[in-house]
Structures
1.
Amino acid sequence: MSEETKTKNSHDEHHDHSFPNWVTFGHTDDPVDGFIKIFAWLVFWTILEVLAIVQEFDSFALNMLILFGIALIKCWYICSFFMHMTWDPPLVYQTASVPLFFLAVLFLAVGLTTPGAVDDLATICGF
Amino acid sequence: MSDGHDEHHAHIETPAPFLFCVATAIMFIGLVMATAGGEDKTGDTGYWFVFIIGLIGIFTAFFMWVQDYWNLEGEEDEHIETYHKFWDTISTRKFGMWIFLLTEVMVFSTLLSAYLRYRASMPDYSPDIDCGLYFEDCWVPAADVIRSHLIFGVINTFALLLSSLTVVLALYAAKNNNPKAVTRYLAVTFVLGAMFLALKLWEWNEMRHYNFWDESHNGCDVLAGQSIADHCIAPKYANGFWLDTSIEGSTFYITTGMHGAHVFIGLIALGYLIAKSNKDGYNEENHETIELFGLYWHYVDLVWVFVFPFFYLY
Amino acid sequence: MLRSKLIGLGILLSIIFAVTAIPTGETNPGGIDPSISTLVEANGCSCHNIGDGDMNNPNSAVILNLTMPSNFSAGETYTLVLNISGGPNDIAPMENGPNMGGFMLKVSTGTLTPIDDNVWKPEDSSYLTHTGGEEGQGGDGNNLREWSFNWTAPDSDSLVAEFMVYGNSVNGNAYEDSGGMGNSGDYWNSGTFLLAGKNAQITDGSAHGELSGPKKVVYGFGIVFITLAVVVVGYRMVDQDESFEEVMKSYWKWIYPWLTTTDHKYIGTLYIVTGFAWFFIGGILGLLIRWQLYEPRVDGDFLTYQEYNSTFTMHGTTMIFMAAMPIIFGFANYLIPLQIGARDLAFPRLNSFGYWLLPTGGIVLYMGYFTGGAGDVGWTGYAPYSSGASATRPGTDFWVAGQLMLGASSTLTAVNFLVTMLRMRAPGVSLMKMPLFAWSILVTVFLLLLSIPVFTVALILLMADRTFGSLYFSGPDSDPILWQHLFWYFGHPEVYIVILPAFGVLSEIISTFSRRPIFGYTSMVYAMATIGIISFVVYGHHMFTTGADPLFRFIVMLTTMLVAVPTGIKIFNWLATMTGGSVVLNTPMMFSLGTIITFTIGGITGIILASIPLDIAFHDTYFVVAHFHYVLIGGTMFSFIAGVYYWYPKMTGKMMNERLGIIHFAATFITFNAAFYPMHNVGISGMPRRYATYDASLTELNQFISIFAILFGLAQLIFVYNVFYSYRNGKEAGDNPWNGWSLEWATSSPPPENSFIEIPTLLDAEEEAKKSE
């Protein structure tokens, strides 16, 4: 109907939705199968982080590393595949990375400036 | 691009935005007066009626707004030309949705920064720290209140992840010209989202009323505050865990509440999609709206990916 | 030639006269003369105060406190305690002691009785005062700061008893020299305390049943409007023999398109008109502030102190959110599609939604005036005052709710503009060929996009605290500085949001009226982008006195000073543009030049404030008020008035009257500088901002400021008249009265329904200029 969506569709048909082989345990041509495997990975990582926390490790740094790391990994899965960023033109991920600098200011300035905050700004920079 | 386009470029006239805003104002006036008005300034309950009228007005205006799209084949009613490479590589509305998601990123980052600030300013509870008689000098996180009933949070996480998958499957069903499957997948998404909200509200209620741990307190001396690992809860939460109990409560409920509100708004939009899919069907030619909704929905899931570990697990 | 020399000389003499007329700051010993009879009531405790400028005036350093029950029962006796603190007897050591202070107290109803030797009631009088002042009197009342006495309530408990207290705080240097009568350097103050009976009600200073000021205004306008409407409709019905339905239908046919339009030109017009209307409302609030500050006043003299708090709060919030931002969006809405060659914005319905949130949000914002007091928390809404019980309720809640709506409006509009400007530019309009006004809007909406959501969340947290009892700001362990961080993370980019479009307008006007493209276009673009990004880091300079992390403050100070560099680049580029061009000095150009001067002054005081040691001294004084009014009025407002004069022909097809324009400029420029420049002096002398009164020594300067502020307000009426007059009687403008070369001048004035029938292609500026020769 509208030319714009038509154009977009033909754009889709030109690239096949190829998932990285390691994600899908081998090549797959069926995008549905690929996405189901992505979901399986997400479930796996979720179970992993719950199990890790239930262990109640003593080290604060280790806990943070696990939680934050797994969150970033799940974020990568959702963004790249569910949100289609892997197959999207560069405009999309460039748009999505715009807030990163501003987030850093927000987290550092609002989050870490109470005196003696876990890693307050002054300590980090050796003041 | 010549004169045939003139009638396509006539400007739309619609009263829906105006009515939506008037209704929103009425809703806010009702809400504020109902919670802070009256002689004693604690609320004039008669104004809840005004609040409801405002809400009804908002829904009516919303329906009027989507009326324009309801009868179109796709939701794209205007051909927008573009003349510049790089910026034209995705559709206008998709670009608009991504820009909108940037604002949502700032919203949740603000909530998380405030949480980080408060959490970092106090040591976490641990038996070897002096936390004060009522544990006011330590952070006793919501995670410890939830720990014994963590399974519900995990179920919610899976529900949301699965709903993201079903939205993607709905989109691909449309691309593969299977409109009935589209409606089914969207309906499953709705059910999963509604289940998420219901379970969350139930969890909240349990936490609020101190129901989340063993009645006999597992042999704990609550006042002495034994190790949290034994599922004893500090006297801080002896009367339940709610947003006016402590800052831990405020940050927990407001952050998860904002997330829940976003799920709720998503469900409303999803309702429209299901109705439209049922009526006209989405197919290879028209499925952009599902994609746009999907971006929003995946973002909501993404926020949960960060909220879950830092509020439910840690 | 001679004529213009004479005019120049006249202007120069006026400036010299104005500068020399600025008062030196000595107080005028006229003093206060209330019309009541007793000695103390006529002159305060000034008999203790001979030979010093402070003789007849109360001093706000002296704090009076009367401890009393929360209400009284008829006929009961209560023991009340009067306490005086502050003033010179707080400064150790007393020069001669131990005289501390004294008081006089009277009450409007009920009976006063002393209960010890320190207080006595002179014969045949009904007031109490301290002992120790008279020969042969016992007691030590002179050497105290606290006195107790009894008060017996009247027989009716639906009365309100008003206690009038005069108290003084001495420095003890006069005991020997003046026969016990006191000497220079003592302070005194007076105060009123209200005690309601069990069945009485204290209403905000007004008698029971009387309407509050804002209610009177609104009802008054309502009555006038309804009367006019009846007269107009009735006249039409009679004169043109139409039925009531027919008249209403024709009005409806006129108004319905305005309610339902999604055309960027109409929405732009709506934004501009709405913005200017709220600008006048905010201006009236500003004049109320200046009238309150005409001279030192006690609570309730003109405004009560709490009403004053509401006044400056609503003044700030209105000016920023209801005036400046809508005017910016208005011009952006109207011009951006024209300048980039697009037919409309990307999402027209969303555009309409963004507009209508504005008047409706404004109504919600002002609802406080009908419910006992508008929000009184300052436009910055600092916690824990804003989250606590002392802030007006529900006025503050309305203030929060209104701003939530306005924030949503700005966010959605920002999304709309970003998508439009990045995707819908005509062929040839590459990003680096866009007019500078378009660039300024692009950077502005980028800032809006990222900063407004932070403020929205902060407001939601505040609302949660106030409504649901959460503890973000209001609990014992809460951190009020969190609010400051969240507010200023938004608040600082916000002020760049209101100034960057002004820069854009300046670039347009200066280049057109210098008959050449802007000097250094590329550096102008990069300067704006740099300002935009740095603005997110510098917000901490509003928090230098909070005891924030030293590293944070250090980084902020450096970056704040750094942001002056790109701003300076822009100013020098404008100057370079004019130097290399042939300048036309008409009204838009004069306002632009005025902007450069006043904005530069404001910018310099900004650099002064960027330095932490200086800021610690100037924070919360009138120096800051002067700074931001110089950049906001001198920067934003002047530019947009210039913008109105510049684009009015395009929007309406008529030219504005040039002579009235120049008169408007002269009056505005002179009165603005006269009103706001002395605020620097007053601030350096220590006058705090947001206080409803001030030290009496600054009275003359404040009177000067207030008078010129009123004249500044009156000068704007010239502008209003010009706008309306020219709409009817202005000269036809034609497509391009100024010979500009950006795309908006390529279409008719006003532009047709469909702004562009065919999307044009942008030519080079020089080619365009050649075409019009």
Note: Residues 1-14 of chain A have pLDDT under 50 and may be disordered.
2.
Amino acid sequence: MENLSLEIVTLITGIALLLIGIWGLLTQKNLIKMVIGFALFDTGIHIIMVSIGYVKNRTAPILDQAVKTNQAAEKIVDPVPQALVLTAIVIGLGITALMLAFVLKMYQKKKSLEINNFNDLKW
Amino acid sequence: MVKNTFIFVLLVGFVFLFFNLFADFTGNTELNKLAGHYAESGHEEVGAANLVTAVVVTYRGLDTLGEVTILFLSAAIVSFLLKIETSSTDDRKLRTTSEILDTASKILVPVIFIFGIYVFINGHLTPGGGFQGGAIIASGLVLILLAKPLRQISQKLISIVESISGLSFVLLGVAGILFAAGFLDNKILSLGEFGTIFSAGLIPIIYIFVGLKVGAELSSIITNLQENQNEA
């Protein structure tokens, strides 16, 4: 257990969340639960990205009294994955809002949230 | 049965995909070359104490512009799908708002708005920035709507704030081509003293516009979703 460091734990958490999200997307019949599954999938990927950018025993990429500018390269973690995750969170939020709007529209049409009732395109 | 097997196979496939990533993963002990460059010369080139902000707004400013565009697009589609019909707001059955929620929203909403503005103005110094500040402002709006569900939020004001800040973001980017090294370069203004609020050139100004734009877009999504509940 001594080699169970922070980045390994976060990586396992991220992969577990991602798998739960995919499982939810595939098995749930309720549209809202499917949206929640998608959001979990999204969050799992964010955690994986941040854990890949982590560098052992270092701190956040913000320069202040604790991290002087001349020793920044030895003290901070990679800022690029964090910036990418910031982008990904915002886009994930936009997609979730869009999916919820579709769900609302579908509910208004058929008064139901069960995916089995939406079989107009089934053949 | 076939369906369950298929789901199981797909999940096992994903486990296999990510197991490869996990098995080789030992964690980093060094920054890679690009991140090392950002860490060493980011404070001279950009002047932002928060290096994530330096990457988001300046080094990869174009990505941020695309991101803001995607958020705008999704907000636009949500408001297109959920057109607000003003006539149907009367027949909603509402519970009376409790005294605690009503009073707390009156006291907390201005504080939440000011905190959101603080977060995006200080985006180049402390953790935070335009997106986070905008989300905080929109959460203040959620509190208003929880306390007074029938309150009308002016869509006109939201769209004016959104368009002006979006346009200013692009114009500031174009000004970078004319007066500095390239699109969205922040050296139009002087970089100032490192670590103070008036530093990092254009970054605080761009982040103010990003914050206002994100706040307006999230507010429009929330009001659209909220005012459509009664039709369901």
Note: Chain B has a mean pLDDT of 81.
3.
Amino acid sequence: MAMITFDAVSKKYPTGVVALDDVSFQIDDNEFVFLVGASGAGKTTILRLLLKQMEPTSGSIFIDKVDITAKGFKDSTLVRRNIGIVFQDFKILHDKDIFENVALSLQVTGAKEATIKSKVEEVLDLVGLSEKKRMFPLQLSAGELQRVAIARAIIGDRGIILADEPTGNLDPKTTWEIMKIFKKLDGQKTLLIATHNADIVNSFKKRVITVKDGKVQSDRRGGTYEL
Amino acid sequence: MKEVLNSIRRTPYQSLASFLILFFALFLTIFVFYLTSFFSSILSYVETRPQVIAYFDVDATEKNILELKKNIEKSGKSSEVVYISQDKALKIYKELNSDNPLLLEMVSANILPASLEVYATKPEYLAEISKFLDDEQIVEEVSFQENIVDRLLTLTTILRRGALFLSGFLVLISIVVLMTTTAFKIALKKDEIDLMQLLGATTFYVRKPFLVEGMIFGFVSASVAFGVFYLLYALMFPFLSSYLTGIPSLSFYSLDSYGLSVFPPSIFFIVLSYLFTVIFGITIGLIGNYLSTSKYIR
């Protein structure tokens, strides 16, 4: 189960900028959703709120019916262990090899070495990097690095995958390779992908939530990229 | 452990700074600890020695001497007065010179004076007792250790306070240096720390390698400092032995029955002081890195 609910969420920064204004939506378990909008529309704020990197000014956020914004709820660790995150700039550690980079995701949760080994092998196979597991990031292309990041995000029991512009730094061919991996996960994990790439959004024909000036402008199943 | 070793390898100069300051602080702490133990032990030893000894004319009668002994005891200024007769003096002399037959042949009880060994209740009574004995006609010579106990006590107190201040100051510097070098290491690993936290690592999980690193620095610095100190102690031992001729052993705060001999150092005392140093070193390392991680990793 990994259902996400935003209930009248607003976020106003100390500078006075309103990043989100009364945003409400619900994402079902194992649903594939694109989050689109211009730069500064509030996409990243939604992702950061889900990761508990910040708290909303008002409103509530639920993950599997647990209010993660409730006053008594302080444990961001529990929330984050259920979420895998993929960044535009990959955030791969350059002094660790590929296996170690992916393994980190399980190590921080206290998983046993034997479990880590088998699960990393499994997930590297899924993203097609089994042969390169002992290579270091500097030896890999940008597309391969993003596949490492995806492997790190999906490993283990993380029910939600958040991707913030995952193909923003990639060429068109590699972009499609990465999106194929996300497609493989469709129906297995709850996916929320923030993107600017209209081609991808239009070709996938999945649910699209469009944000503009901190508000949900449209929310359509089988939608297209419209700004 | 691999993480810790990598961290040390990646920041060699910061690691060296942490090690050196800890080494210096711990070496000095061991040094002042031994020095104060040494002086305290000497003080304890001196306190067990007679403080005023009156030697009598060889023709002084035992009756007169015992009468004088009674008068001193009655004054309330002595805690103990011991009478050493000529025969007993000879016996002691024979014991002390048992390995020199020539000296034994030359001496008989007649030429050894009887004596009174007086232990004062307070050091300030020593001069008074000494004068009282000196004024007696049957007393030929008074041996008075001045106020050596008092001086030793003052010296030990000053030394202990000075040592405490100096050690405290160095420990404080060590903690500050450790905090600074660890803060630098945290800054170097900022991306990794942020990522680990985003992946769901607990604060303790992120802090743990730094805490272990502090403990390792403490342990290694303490062990090296202790090793270097004992090397120097071993080199100085012959000089100390000749300086302390006649003193069989010095026990740590009169705890000889527990095998805590400072001079010559017993195995038990060495092991105990090593453990103390290591625990102290590990604690400093842990405190320094705990404070730093508390401030910079939340």
Note: The first strand of chain B starts at residue 52 and ends at 56.
